[in-house]
User: What shape does this take?
Amino acid sequence: MDLGLKDKIVFITGASSGIGASAAQIFSAEGSDVVVSFANNSVGAGQTAAQVQANGRKAWLCRMDVSDPDDVNLAIHALSPEIRGLDALVLCAGLSLHHAFAEITPAEWQRVLAVNLNGAFYVLQACTPLFRDRSSVVLVSSVSAQTGVSHQAHYAAAKAGLVNLAKSAARALAPRVRVNCVTPGLTLTPMGLDTIAALNQDYAKNKMLLQRYATPEEIAQVIVFLASPMNSFMTGATVDVNGGRDLR
Assistant: This one.
């Protein structure tokens, strides 16, 4: 199936590992050039860029702290002159910390929201002038936005905010730009493995209809479809990819 992504330019935050890196690989395999955005993992970002180039597409590295609006604006303005517009934006940067509800400090609360929620808004706002007609945005939320998590109250709250940010942005940017959200279940990424390690050994069996965790590629495939021209009549929607977690 041709998703219509040949010669498109896609900007991905959190592209140095996990779901973001997998999305970059799939986008490039579909014929897109990719801006690989990252915060600190320069080695991972370089590996992602190399995968994009191995697929015969261009890759640009973009280092920025998504929680700092000034840094975001500087990074966007410093993009290569080759990037004259964006066809898709995937907001995948995230930070997950684990503490009991009573132990979350105000500083930790602010930090987690700054990366997961504020950062998505800052990047989306900064990239808006670059969007071409019929471009698309995908925000990566989490099943925790729907279930809540006692030891990750800040993360769950931030991810819930992304669901409504997607709806608000869909209204603001219509009809030129489509904006959708995906809510993955637990996924075998570096961040996801930290969460899984804190859970009961039988969590997947007891809590998920498919009784296993997602691979990054399984989530990324949905993201790529949502961002593609093939998905031309969906905006403001949230797509659950959680192995049936919300049905248990």
